[in-house]
Amino acid sequence: MQRRGKFDYILLETTGLADPGAVASMFWVDSELGSDIYLDGIVSVVDAKHGLQHLTEEKPEGLINEASRQVALADLIIINKTDLVSEEELNKVRTSVRSINGLVKILETQRSRVDLSNVLDLHAFDSLSGVSLQKKLEHVKTTHAHLDKAIITVTFEVPGNIKEENLNLFIQNLLWEKNVKDKTGCTMDVIRLKGLVSIQGKSHQVIVQGVHELYDLEETSVAWKEGEKRTNRLVLIGRSLDKEIIKEVFIATVREERGNS
Ligand SMILES: Nc1nc2c(ncn2[C@@H]2O[C@H](COP(=O)(O)OP(=O)(O)OP(=O)(O)O)[C@@H](O)[C@H]2O)c(=O)[nH]1
Questions:
Q1: Which pLDDT band, with edges at 50, 70 and 90, does 261 fall under?
Q2: Of 81, 83, 108, best ligand 1 pocket probe by most atoms within 8 Å of the beta carbon
Q3: Whose CA is nearest to atom 8 of ligand 1?
Q4: Are 194 and 104 in contact (CB under 8 A)?
């Protein structure tokens, strides 16, 4: 189909209070629908001067504050107005952002001046990010909450091949059924999920992406090499996440296939 005046790129700015997950879900359409539009990535701006205050703001009834949610969902964070803070203050903002989202790329700016190549074509939601995600996943660490009930990042690795249906079950229990709980009985609340897994019968690494209750599995262009240890690495961003428990649940759900690589 030919059409005049096609858009090259759509940059959607949401209001300061928006939950980017809800907006992103609308554009994150199934590739099988053959849409011309795909979700490239989520960018959040953090004000170096007031960001920390927003990130630590406590909401009634344990609700997640919007700023933390925006950081949790972002693929790229721009910490702006760095000229207004000392290096020490800036470091606190950095640490706070990193403790929420251990996977996000951080840029630091004044007057939000960025090289557009760092902001556009992120390919954060498609299989093209397979190679870069692989590198990132090697360095991501589980973070520790600065505040009680804060959002954190947890990551774990389990070797072996897994069955796609078992992986679906694991993700659906977490995101849909919400029946995975921490030690205190609190439901684990996953806001963002990313990973690279080894699905039985697939020659290439499979990327796992989740935003709120939406998730997708897609084979990447990265092939498992001959003799390479097949493995599954997942990164989850959310609240009440307990790495050991999630890992145990994952292993229990995919157990049948462990050691069959
Ligand atoms: N000193 C300094 N001022 C800045 C910088 N970036 C923007 N400003 C100024 O900050 C003021 C408010 O701008 P922003 O915080 O970007 O406002 P905004 O993005 O419209 O606000 P919200 O979308 O409501 O958060 C304006 O006067 C800008 O000129 C910066 O890096 N340093």
A1: very low
A2: 81
A3: 111
A4: no
Write the ipTM: 0.91
**If you measure from the C-alpha of residue 58 to the centroid of ligand 1, how many angstroms do you get, rounded to a whole number?**
24
Instruction: List all residues whose CB is within 6 A of at least one atom of ligand 1.
Output: 16, 47, 80-81, 83-84, 110-112
pTM, 2 dp: 0.89
- The ligand 1 atom at the shortest distance from the C-alpha of residue 48 is 31
Per-residue pLDDT reduced to its tens digit, 104-141: 999 999 999 999 999 999 988 887 766 778 888 888 88
Going by alpha carbons, the residue nearest to atom 6 of ligand 1 is 111
Q: What is the pLDDT of residues 147-187, one digit of tens each?
A: 666 899 999 999 999 999 999 999 999 999 999 999 999 99
Nearest to 80 by CA among 106, 108, 105, 118: 108
Sorted by sequence, the CB contacts under 8 Å of residue 56 that are 6+ apart come out as 96, 146, 147
The alpha carbon dihedral of 45, 213, 236, 158 has a sign of negative
Domain 127-257, second-level architecture:
2-Layer Sandwich (3.30)
Residue of the CA atom closest to atom 22 of ligand 1: 16
pLDDT of residue 18: 80
Distance between CA atoms of 209 and 124, rounded to whole angstroms?
A: 9
Instruction: Name the CATH superfamily housing domain 20-118.
Output: P-loop containing nucleotide triphosphate hydrolases (3.40.50.300)
Per-domain boundaries in the chain: 20-118, 127-257
Structure tokens at 232: 């599954």
